[in-house]
Amino acid sequence: DLRKQARQLENELDLKLVSFSKLCTSYSSTRDGRRDRYSSDTTPLLNGSSQDRMFETMAVEIEQLLGKLTGINDKMAEYTNSAGVPSLNAALMHTLQRHRDILQDYTHEFHKTKANFMAIRERENLLGSVRKDIESYKSGSGVNNRRTELFLKEHEHLRNSDRLIEETISIAMATKENMTSQRGMLKSIQSKMNTLANRFPAVNSLIQRINLRKRRDSLILGGVIGVCTILLLLYAFH
Fold first, then answer.
1. How far apart are CA 187 and CA 198, in angstroms?
2. Contact 14, 109 (CB under 8 A)
3. What local confidence, expressed as pLDDT, does residue 40 receive?
4. Which stretches of the chain score pLDDT less than 50?
5. Where are the transmembrane segments (predicted)?
6. Who is most buried in 39, 48, 59, 205, counting CB within 10 A?
7. Residue 39 pLDDT
């Protein structure tokens, strides 16, 4: 008798859950269709809708059936634990476990479908409030909206100008720092050269003499080449 009652409740729950899932699916598609057809929120989408009332009614009915099925499972568990059925205890435990699994699956499916429905309804409420805010903004004065847009554009232009000026100043500061570092390097090199020249005056004088001798040798070689050229020209014209 308890198994027969459990099966009857399970069949009813199966049908109810299928209808419950279809209701949630049709609810979502109906709301999407209304949102596509109407661009404004002149009529409420959710408040006092027949689908909301049907959802609440079916949810209560399913919860009641789940409660009844839970009670039947508890009674079957008490029967399997009684002292009069020791030989059939294993088979009865297997049957009880199967009914418990079915109850757990139905409970999980119910809570999942209900959570999806609540999420869809909350999203619709949020979208509805956002649309109302947008419509209220659009229904304002056109001159004020235009003036606000101009102010926003001017503010954006000023922000862009400030950003460009800051970038230019940062580039100039980086260039200044590079030039300062290069000047310091050149000064350090010049000071090192002066130090070397002061430490080795003999080397400096020797370099000057070598340069003078090179210059004198260049003059002598140029003179010899010039004389030879003149002699060759005289010889050729003679």
1. 16
2. no
3. 43
4. 36-48
5. 219-237
6. 59
7. 43
Q: Rounded to an integer, what distance in angstroms lies between the CA atom of residue 121 and that of residue 115?
A: 10
Q: Give just the sign of the alpha carbon dihedral 45, 49, 54, 56.
A: positive
* Residue with tokens 């300062």, as numbered in its chain: 180
pLDDT for res 30: 58
Amino acid, res. 160? N
Residue 90 amino acid letter: A
Measured distance CA(49)–CA(84) in Å, rounded: 54
What pLDDT does 86 receive? 55
> 90-122: buried (b, 16+ CB within 10 Å) or exposed (e) per residue?
eebeebbeebeebbeebbebbeebbeebeebbe
Q: Would you state the pLDDT for residue 48?
A: 41
Q: CA-to-CA distance for 231 and 160, rounded, in angstroms?
A: 81
Q: Which residue shows structure tokens 């109810």?
A: 16
Could you give all domains of the chain from N- to C-terminal order, each with its CATH number? 1-31+45-140 (1.20.58)
CA-nearest of 70, 89, 91 to 80 is 89
The answer to whether the predicted template modeling score (pTM) of the entire model surpasses 0.90 is no
**Separation of first and last alpha carbons in the chain:** 153
What's the rounded Cα separation, in Å, for the pair 106 and 98? Answer: 12
Confidence (pLDDT) at 98: 87
Residue type, 228: C
Q: If you search the block for the tokens 């229904």, which residue do you land on?
A: 139
